[in-house]
Amino acid sequence: MSGREQPIGKTDRGVTVADRIAFFDVDGTLLSFRTHSMPETTRVALRELRKNDVLIYVASGRALFQLPRALREGEGDFPGFDGFLCNSGQICLDDRGIFRMTALDPADVRAITEQSMDGSYDIVYMTADRAFTPRHGDLVRRAEENANVRFDEDSPEEAYKRPVFQMNAFIAPEDEHRILEVTDNVKLVRWTEDFADIIPADGGKDQGVLAVLEHHGIDRSGAYAFGDGGNDVSMLNAVGCGVAMGNADHRAKAVADVITTSVDDAGIYRACVHLGLIDDVLGICGGDRTYTVIEDKGGR
């Protein structure tokens, strides 16, 4: 995981503590939709954050096994992240192991599965170690292509044999009510028109963020979050400073404190310089951090 040679500090439980922490969404934030890779400017920003004793966490709708190896383990001069908030906040872990795990109610998983059997929408199940679908419809295939991932194809019966932490329902926004009508303990969040993430009613990236802050003993005022989708809104609201990428969904931009440039235009790096989290070691911000981002609603 992070491989910090000199931990910032430890509690009596061995948990790394710090004053500041930054959470990063993956698709459209850490990773470019165009290249499916992390821009070099982002890699530099993450490296500098670690040097400045800022904890860094991935905060993704993906399961841990779906993350590229460079994010899971580090690569080159980037040694990796301090922890992971996965499955939209349902699983949180660091070097010591998992400290939050919240699964969907099995009755809700079964109800959604049975409803989808009429063929009106496709679903993907996400467990701790698998992501699979009963059928590869066009929207499922498009999701695989957009995120550069692959879903196994398997019987929905497999979803009844293990905890399911998140489901993707490839259903139109105006039809989401159908799912809510047959379930008791879920909520739906969305970062694309193609599908909705189905998570526990008491789940979400915001709940994952709160669990991480408590785990490390960090105040909300020292927390930053970077995202681009509608499913990042709760996370951006849960921290002291929420940053929306220039390529972000309008919902993310509406709640963000800072709107930076796009993932492909050094958005993370520019925002970190602007917020004083790192120095402009690349010299691309013109020596004046006031104009490095698109908008700062708080006048930072």
Structure description:
This protein has 300 residues and is of the alpha/beta class. The protein has two domains: 20-101 and 204-296, HAD superfamily/HAD-like (Rossmann fold); 106-200, Hypothetical Protein, Haloacid Dehalogenase-like Hydrolase, Chain: A, domain 2. The protein is 25% helix and 20% strand. It is built from nine helices and 15 strands. The chain has helices spanning 40-51, 69-73, 106-116, 138-147, 176-181, 205-216, 233-238, 250-255, 267-274; strands at residues 20-24, 54-59, 83-86, 91-94, 97-101, 122-126, 131-133, 152-153, 166-170, 186-189, 196-200, 223-227, 241-244, 258-259, 295-296. The chain has a nine-stranded mixed sheet, sandwiched between helices. A hairpin with a 6-residue loop joins strand 10 and strand 11. Helix 1 runs parallel beside helix 9. The radius of gyration is 19 Å and the shape is globular.
Give the topology:
Elements: E1 20-24, H1 40-51, E2 54-59, H2 69-73, E3 83-86, E4 91-94, E5 97-101, H3 106-116, E6 122-126, E7 131-133, H4 138-147, E8 152-153, E9 166-170, H5 176-181, E10 186-189, E11 196-200, H6 205-216, E12 223-227, H7 233-238, E13 241-244, H8 250-255, E14 258-259, H9 267-274, E15 295-296
Helix pairs in contact: 1-9
